[in-house]
Amino acid sequence: MIHLAKVLKANQLNKCIGCFTCMLVCAGINRRNHSIRKSCISMKTSGGMSGRFVSVVCQACRDPQCAGVCPSDALKPRKGGGVTLDKSKCIGCRRCEAACLVSAIGYDEEERKPLVCHHCGMCARYCPHGCLELVDVPDEEEVAV
Amino acid sequence: MIYADYIRVLHIELDKGKISIAQREDLTQYLGGVGVASKLLEEYMHPELEPLAPEQPIVFAIGALSSVYPVITKTVAMFISPLTGELGETYAGGRLAMTMFQAGFDAIVITGRAKGPTYVAINANDVAFKNAGAIWGTGNDSAGQIIRDSEKGPSGKRSIVRIGTAGENLVSYACVNVDRYRHFGRLGLGAVFGSKYLKAMSVIGNRDMPIENFQEYFKVYREIYDKATAQGGAMAKYHDTGTAINIEPLSKMGGLPTLNLRQGSFEDADKVSGDAFAKNQLVRKMACTGCPVGCIHIGQFRREFADEGYEYEAVSVGYDYELIYALGTFLGISDPEKILELIDEVETAGLDAMSAGVALGWAAEALEKGLVTEEETLAPLKFGEPEGFLKAIRYIAEGKNEFYLHLGKGVRHVSLKYGGYDFGMQIAGNEMAGYHTGYGSLIGAAVGARHSHLCNGGYSVDQGMKEPGVDPDAMAKSLLDEEVERCMLNSLVICLFARKVYDRETVLKAMKAIGMDMTDEELSAVAKRNYATKLRIKKALGFDWEGIKLPKRYFETPSARGQLDEATAEEILSRYRARMAEYQAAE
Fold first, then answer.
1. End-to-end C-alpha distance for chain A, whole angstroms
2. Do the Cβ atoms of A19 and B211 come within 8 Å?
3. Residues of A in contact with B214 (CB under 8 A)
4. ipTM of this model?
5. Interface test with B, best of A14, A30, A31, A50 (most B CBs within 10 A)
6. Is the CB of B292 less than 8 angstroms away from the CB of A21?
7. B212 to each of A29, A34, B70, B216, B223, how far by Cα in Å?
8. Could you report the per-residue pLDDT of B14-39, keeping only the tens digit for each?
9. Beta bridge partners of B430
10. Does residue A63 sit at the B interface (CB-CB below 8 Å)?
11. CB pair distance less than 8 Å for B229 and A128
């Protein structure tokens, strides 16, 4: 039997209306904060409001560079892709931020820890336009078998 | 302010280049939004001076729930209107409410005149006065783009509010553009910006804001979110076809102002209907920050560069019912591409679309009737022909000649100057909105504190009436009750499209979840207090409730509810004044 892990995919951003509900909900649920600066997903306009929306969010890498550079093993690869963060081990060095090619790791200035998406899918649950979804991916080791 | 017992006010003095912060406990009794803004306007205004005197204030305010719950996305701006000379009040969505909230300012007061073109860059930790010399004279689209690309600041979402050339040139119905597709449209806030040499204001929200009672808060958030996004629910129509869906039904019932209100319906309504725009023009929908509904409809048209042969650009502009009415049916334009082109021209210049369209309608009829000549209008202004109107929009914004300087002061002013008062479609100095639905729309705008269709939704009162005829006292009561209730909704600055989502019970529950325990009676008291404040401001600015002179055409062209007569209109007005006295006596 293949066990499925879930990862977040922003596959339909052409439908994005720019309401930023994903960011408000992520910051609320995951950081207990009203400020969208605390969100692990970020929507941006390319070229102002008349430009397209693009998302900056964890790509669920199978071989995450952020975990690779983590000096304290606070970031560990997660089943299905991406990483998990053990805050108790994190020293806030910010190496992971620099290592992420898509700049998807933010930084919580107050807590002095990285903002790392853990693919909970709440942003997708509250996306009113179906731009984000939580998709099933086969666990890598099991695929290899 | 959320989780605090005061309202935090940022006062910016442009003449001195100074700022100050006040944490005002006394203002919490006004709740926020229009209540706080009214009180601050009352404190800072100078009734003895002209509306555009440097000393006059601009006040922005958000509410206690702004950005925290879905669809609470608006910011109110209050000022003395250069168009009417009295209470100025206008609302815009976009990102401004969220950025003000996250920068930590419930209200911003701006006074004084800068020494030269300036823009103000605000974030939670800084307010900077920047030279705007390089963008003075640009359209509001370029101004926004240049500030966005050049302005460095802390990370966080940013809102950029700015004016076009119409505001710089003090056109009485110049608007302020917010984040490209939203506006402080009505009553000339753009001119107040221009009079202060204020080209733009940018706000970055970069504050840390821990949630105090997450479980309770998010439970209420989820309920409201689900209600606002329900398929076929109270807000679905705003997302689907958008407000433009109203064009055809309004035309059918005879309430769609057409050809300078010579008609109440448009023979080509099907060509400019919400469906027609959606099928052929619509390319995108967008939302204000924190609104999962997304009512902003963007249409596209192709513009050919003159005389260059097969050279085009694709232009995207926002459209809504009011814009299709003012720059379409009111001017007899039945080509959606041309309506979008007129909207784009109005956008770039930074004019209020409704006032601009109504001014052009008056001008076309005045030219037709020989009250003005083509030497004055410089362009042939003819109903159904967009080319002349496109030029005239630019001429208004530039103040091209004496005629356009007068036209730029509004329809009441220009029709008193050149004649044609009775077909100049204004109500108490503000150009009419897209509703000739009956006494509700007409008298509603006359008695509304800012003479807008949204003061009391009179058009909706008309459409809700089942029986023929009108009971003057019942009409007066409906208008007043709704106006007062909106003084509460607007103090929370809830988008009025969500008024059915935010019933009293929901409002109280939402407030309670963030630690604001109020009763229904207390909310009613806030509404009453805020309305009373507005009435005091109007009185101080010399508004004469007895002196509203309505142009005759409102009584000539049948409305959706039949022919209106002046005696009945006057009767409703007098009933309203009698009922209003209770609020004038308050406090």
1. 11
2. no
3. 28, 32
4. 0.92
5. A50
6. yes
7. 12, 10, 18, 9, 19
8. 999 999 999 999 999 999 999 999 99
9. B427
10. no
11. yes
For chain B, report the end-to-end CA distance as a whole number of angstroms.
24
Q: What is the mean pLDDT of chain B?
A: 96
* Four-point Cα dihedral A12, A17, A22, A24, nearest 10: 170
Going by the DSSP 8-state scheme, the letter that residue B502 receives in this structure is S
**Interchain pair A34, B292: CB under 8 A:** no
pLDDT digits (tens, 9 = 90+) for B300-354: 999 988 777 888 999 999 999 999 999 999 999 999 999 999 999 999 999 999 9
Element (H, E) at B391: helix B386-398
**Contact status of A141 with chain B (Cβ, < 8 Å):** no
pLDDT band at A48 (very low <50, low <70, confident <90, very high): low
CB-CB under 8 Å, A35 with B67: no
Are A128 and B290 inside 8 Å of each other by CB? no
Provide the pLDDT confidence category of residue B231 given band limits of 50, 70 and 90: confident
How far away is chain A from the Cα of B40, in angstroms, using its nearest Cα? 27
Residue B551 to residue B567: CA distance in whole angstroms: 14
DSSP assignment of B73-113: --EEEEEE-TTTSSEEEEEE-TTHHHHHHHHT-SEEEEES-
Query: Which residues sit opposite B200 in a β-bridge?
Result: B119, B162
